[in-house]
Request: fold
Amino acid sequence: MRLSKAWLIASRDFKIFLRQKSIWYSIIIFPVIISVLFPIIIMFAGQRNAGLIAAKNLPNLLNSFSFFVVIGAAFVPLGIASYSIVGEKVEKSLEPLLATPLTDGEILLGKAIAAVLPAIIAMYTGATVFMVGIDAVTVSKLGYNYFPNWTFGVMLLVLVPVAIVMSVLYSVIVSSKVNDVRSANTYGILIFIPLMAIYFASEMGIISLDINGLLIIAAILLAIDVALFFISTATFRREDILTKWR
Amino acid sequence: MTILINTENLSKKFGDFTAVEGLTLNVEDGEVFGFLGPNGAGKTTTVRMLCCLISKTSGNARVGGYDVGNKEDSLKIRKIIGFVSDNVGLSENLTAYDNLDFYGRIYDCPDTERKESIRRLLDMLGLWDKRNVLAGTFSKGMKQKLAIARALIHDPQILFLDEPTANLDPESAKTVREFITDLKKQKKTIFINTHNLDEAQRLCDKIGILNTKLQAIGTPADLELTAKGRKTIVALEKANNAVGEALSKMPLKNLTIEGNRIMFEVADPERENWPVVEAVVMAGGHINTVNVIGSTLEDVYLKLVRDSA
Reply:
């Protein structure tokens, strides 16, 4: 496996993404929602109904909001990964690429880097703005800056990468079954189900989104990542791409 | 001459379906080899096997001296070949220059050589002025030329072209054919899949006719000289019954008499025609002309494909 070759694929894909507005939207929409909308909600909700976000309730609410960074992390790479592979299927440009001396692993890794890197940058940027915004609107009520904290640190440093990788690997599998980017995105939405289930379970008090709870969730998602890795590498094989992919 | 492509009993099955069966052929260095056959004949499957894109089911194949079935050799084969698929497959959101540059980097072409190659190829194809234009905006012919340039960026030993002029308008097809002719002059080894007989005849040194199995192989002239379908036409000043009766007693294949014209198939015109001429004259016929019409590549192709169906 030559990382330089994988990087070559990723760089080429970045160049292509730069010309695709739809990709840009899919990258920035969720981080913008998280970083702008949530602080605004907290700010206006505080003005209208002080009881709802009394200082003692704020940490739980902010913790719940924080988990949307993980959900967003699964969303952001979907559009990129789908376009990266299905886009090539539509343009029929995979076959000439497969006829070069690149290995299947190098191509797949390049595609993965092309989807993971913008997603990481977008989510970390969004999360930073989110932290600053939330602190700005809550510091007067809490008397301290809620962010950064270890719980959010675990979300950012452990769960976000795990969720992004899960989304990318899942997209590879979906991409082998569909012929257009829209269908890939439609099926891709299914990746939200486990994450939304976690969110609602935490809201209902079934699980706790504290550090221990998050690490258990991360371990489960990591196991899913490993399973998806084996399925996606088995799917992304030269001969199968040419003869079995739709 | 060095043999660059060699297959022996090469076969490929997809489940119960046999795409290619028992293919044996050689392509020599500097040769342009044309693979003719109807849709579904196994041409693309063969090229994909030779380019190590799909595995073979049985038999042997070597490309540039490397074993097609060997995993390590497959990377070496892909280094020395250039491949243009039947659907071009350019990155449409990249410029013509970036398309070539990307592939040049894949093949580890050094910076200076890569830039020179891109310039030379785009110049040769008349696309240098459009180097910064997105490939997606190109016409079909321009895309096809760019795809061929992409396959040549690393100066491969062997170029595989799968239906290079299919779906092109006559003018674009002509431009692509001229480009292939230029490559032929440079003694590039080229393996072309096509079902365009005229193209095969004009471009190829050797032609193989495939319909799952290899039906025939040879130079276009050899194939045309195949005895099958060669006809003698005798034009008489005036036909009479005696001539017809005389000829009907002779062992002539597919004899037809239409008005003043007598036609029959012959295997060896030099040997077989004179007894016929003698019989016609003896029966009182006055001969104007005697012509031998060889079978065209189209005749040979259609006969072989129909016989094998």
